[in-house]
Each structure stands twice: as structure tokens, then as C-alpha cells.
Design brief:
Bound molecules: adenosine-5'-triphosphate, 1-O-pyrophosphono-5-O-phosphono-alpha-D-ribofuranose
Number of strands: 11
Low-confidence stretches: none
Mean pLDDT: 95
Structural class: alpha/beta
Order of helices and strands: EHEEHEHEEHEHEHEHEEHH
Strand order of the largest sheet: 2-3-1-4-11-5
Distance between the termini: 31 Å
Radius of gyration: 19 Å
CATH class of the largest domain: Alpha Beta
Largest sheet: 6 strands, mixed
Number of domains: 2
Shape: elongated
CATH architecture of the largest domain: 3-Layer(aba) Sandwich
CATH superfamily of the largest domain: Periplasmic binding protein-like II
Number of helices: 9
Length: about 210
């Protein structure tokens, strides 16, 4: 039996992903050592391998088949646009992709003005403004602390993740439009899905049994 390899997003989703896998009997004790610098972990008994990578790289590993299976946020799947199968919504890491800004920016969205949109997600923002709203905008790519952009005058609005809404509230901003709900998904390499169909299907069925 060959090894099945999992690419898991490090950061916010990692711990929750490991605990959902544990609930279906997939454990990788080694991975829990916070001091370890090791990158790849093996469960000999189950013939599984795991590695943690930057969330944005998970779809890349899965498309190329370096990992058979990945767990990553829907936002990253949409933004990366890789060829893979999205097989299950794990229901964790729930949040929303939103257009946000000061209340005063609402009118700019309703009247189709040429506005600047700061975001870590240029493809999602482009798709939303061009294909859904049919509004021409200038997209400005940032890499973090997106809420700063409208405060310091870099953009009129932002496209970003909202979970509790605290970051927006504490900075005098609000949700202006909701683009879509988000959560972590399991994704599968298209060839692996065919070659390892039975094992992957069992995994999906087991996961469906433990998620609410
Ligand atoms: N409040 C939140 N903020 C950001 N992401 C969240 C939040 N809640 C859930 N998520 C989900 O967690 C995923 C990973 O978030 P995390 O902040 O760990 O990674 P990242 O932002 O891609 O990493 P980095 O900070 O290295 O760029 C997101 O892609 C999203 O699907
Ligand atoms: O609605 P909330 O619960 O406040 O969560 C949303 C915030 O969390 C994320 O930022 P993150 O902490 O990942 O930092 P970053 O902005 O540097 O990416 C996201 O980009 C928002 O800023």
C-alpha cells in the first residue's frame, strides 16, 4: 500500500484540523510537538504522511500531486484557482469574505464609482467587482493588516475576512457587503481521487460522520 500524503495549512486551522482527523482515528503524535522543526511526519501504521505548509501553498501541493489531500480555507481555494476536487466542508474556521470600509463608503459601492480596493485576495475581489457587481475598481494587493488601508487613505474599501467583526469595529469600519461564507475544506488531487478512490472515499465518509 502506498502512502497517502496530507498537506495541512499551518496557522489558525492547524490545531482544529488535527483534532478533526483525530476524531476519525488519524493521529500523528509527532506533529503536536511545538518545538519541532521537522517538516514531514509519518504514521507508519496507517501509511499516511503529513506536512504543514503556508495556507496559500496547500492548493499548489495538491494540484501537482505532491500531496494527495489538503485541508485549507475556502478563501485560499477560491483565490488560488487550482485544479483540484473540493470534497468536503469541514465546518471549521468559519468566517465571511466581505467588502468593508467606513460607513461613508457605502454610496461609492451603490453608485458604481471607480474606487480603490485593498486586499490580500485580488482574484476574489476582481471576480466580485467585475463579474458580480459589474463595477470597475482598482485593486491594491496587500499582505496583512488590510484594515489599515481605508484608515490611512490607501483605499476606499477593503475585501477581507471577517470573523467576529472586532478588527473592523475597533477601527471604525463596518461590513458593507458580504461576498460569501467561508470555512475549511478538504481538497483532493484529481489523479489521486481515481487511483486511491476507496481509501479517500472512506476518509470522506468517516469525516462526514463526525462533523455536525
Ligand atoms: N479571523 C480570521 N482571520 C483570518 N482567517 C481566518 C479567520 N477565521 C478563520 N480563518 C480561516 O483561517 C485560514 C488561515 O488563516 P491564517 O491567519 O492562519 O493564515 P494566513 O492568513 O493565510 O497566514 P499568514 O498570516 O501567514 O498570511 C484563512 O484562510 C481562513 O480560511
Ligand atoms: O473579524 P475578526 O474576528 O476581527 O477577524 C478578522 C481579522 O483577522 C484576520 O487578520 P489576521 O489576524 O490574520 O492578521 P492579518 O490582517 O495580518 O492577516 C483578517 O484579515 C481580519 O483582519
Amino acid at each position: 500500500m502506498r502512502y497517502l500524503t496530507f498537506a495541512l495549512a499551518k496557522g489558525r486551522l492547524a490545531k482544529k484540523t488535527l483534532s478533526i482527523l483525530e476524531r476519525i482515528g488519524i493521529t500523528c503524535e509527532e506533529m503536536k510537538d511545538p518545538n519541532s522543526r521537522k517538516l514531514i511526519f509519518v504514521n507508519e501504521e496507517l501509511k499516511l504522511k503529513f506536512f504543514l505548509s503556508k495556507a496559500t501553498d496547500v492548493p499548489t501541493y495538491v494540484e501537482y500531486g505532491a500531496a494527495d489531500i489538503g485541508v485549507v480555507g475556502k478563501d485560499t481555494i477560491m483565490e488560488e484557482g487550482r485544479k483540484l476536487y473540493e470534497v468536503i466542508d469541514l465546518g471549521l474556521g468559519k468566517c465571511r469574505m466581505c467588502v468593508a470600509g467606513p460607513a461613508s463608503a457605502k454610496d461609492l459601492l451603490n453608485h458604481g464609482e471607480l474606487i480603490r480596493v485593498a486586499t490580500k485576495y485580488p482574484n476574489i475581489a476582481k471576480d466580485y467587482f467585475y463579474n458580480v457587481k459589474h463595477q470597475t475598481v482598482e485593486i491594491i494587493k496587500l499582505n496583512g493588516s488590510i484594515e489599515l488601508a481605508p484608515i490611512v487613505g490607501l483605499s476606499e474599501v477593503i475585501v477581507d475576512i471577517v470573523e467576529t467583526g472586532s478588527t473592523l469595529r475597533e477601527n471604525g469600519l463596518e461590513v458593507l457587503e458580504e461576498i460569501c461564507p467561508l470555512s475549511a475544506r478538504m481538497v483532493v488531487n484529481q489523479v489521486s481521487m481515481k487511483m486511491e478512490h476507496e481509501r479517500i472515499q472512506k476518509l470522506i465518509t468517516d469525516l462526514k460522520g463526525v462533523i455536525g
